[in-house]
Amino acid sequence: MRRTVFNEDHEAFRETIRAFIEAEVVPVHDEWFAAGQAPRDFYYKLGELGIFGIRVPEEYGGAGIDSHKYEAVMYEETARAGVSFGGSGVHVLLGLPYIQMLATDEQKKRYLPKFVTGEEMWALAMTEPGTGSDVAGMKTTAKLSEDGTHYVLNGAKTFITGGVHADRVIVCARTSAPTAEDRRFGISLFAVDTKSKGYSVGRKLDKLGLKVSDTAELAFVDVQVPVEDLLGEENKGFHYLGQNLPSERWGIAFGAYAQAKAAVRFAKQYVQDRTVFGKPVAAFQNTKFELAACQAEVDAAEAVADRALEALDAGELTPAEAASAKLFCTEVAHRVIDKCLQLHGGYGYMNEYPIARLYADNRVNRIYGGTSEVMKSIIAKSMGL
Prior knowledge:
By secondary structure, the protein is an alpha+beta fold. The protein has three domains: 8-120, Acyl-CoA dehydrogenase/oxidase, N-terminal domain (Butyryl-Coa Dehydrogenase, subunit A, domain 1, Orthogonal Bundle); 123-234, Butyryl-CoA Dehydrogenase, subunit A, domain 2; 239-383, Butyryl-CoA Dehydrogenase, subunit A, domain 3, CATH 1.20.140.10. Helices cover 49% and strands 15% of the residues. The chain has eleven helices and ten strands. The strands form three sheets. Strands 1-4-5-8 form a four-stranded mixed β-sheet, covered by helices on one side. The protein has a four-stranded antiparallel β-sheet with strand order 2-3-7-6, with no helix packed on it. The chain has a two-stranded antiparallel sheet with strand order 9-10. Helix 7 packs antiparallel against helix 10.
């Protein structure tokens, strides 16, 4: 089946990204893995390559291309090479939509040029210790000062991807108490400068996978946030978060499909090279059948991921469709990567092989951005159940 989602421009971009990965990432990726993060200066290289500015309007230094297809190519190419661009993925996938949707012209002039160059890396701080998926239960507060010039931010966040290197973090905080009718009321979003007094990065969290992506705990003690850094209107934060969830879930779905596709590639290569009982592992019927079944699942996931991508670019991806794509693609990736690791035998359990890292990296896809169980609830609700 011929794919129709990408054109010649996307394929030219693919060649550029593939060459960049081979030259700038593959030779040093093991060092990043051992360090638990990509170096800060790597993000400047991504900025120079133009990766951060693809969807940013030209007046702020971007390319002004209103499409997620270039991001999709990057998901495929990083997975194919078994590498990561560190915590930079959240910069574009999670940071940019809020700036584009909520920032005033004055804010865009301040934020976007540095966003494009990588001079200011962005992250999103939503989750708190003890709240998990229950965003409405957050305890972090932002109280307006008596003179009305700034908010005073107090609280803590956890599981913040990109949190170690971030220069600005979109922090979700309570500006008002919830109402009896709506416990989601009262949350606001702030573009917080990480150099602010009272802002601190706690532990860099030791994760099962995604070792190259820095994830941190954040703490705020009487952090003064200028009123000019409020994003959107007060108390409407939960609504804003909901609007951006479909694009976030598409990103997780597409990334998971790309990982599954890469896993089949790694396994196919391994079983053709590895000899057991005097013949290649690929010669055994079980190997052929397992890989054939994996390929069929990847084909299906690709179709689902591509359809969701087209809907997202058209502005038509519904929350239920995004949930369905995320549920399907992440569950497929889970099954496929497990089978592909099995075909590697004992070597599949060694971190020097990309399949082992892929296995660990993939596990969180069914948790973050909303668990598989939450996705099922959203789909069921859309079915009228």
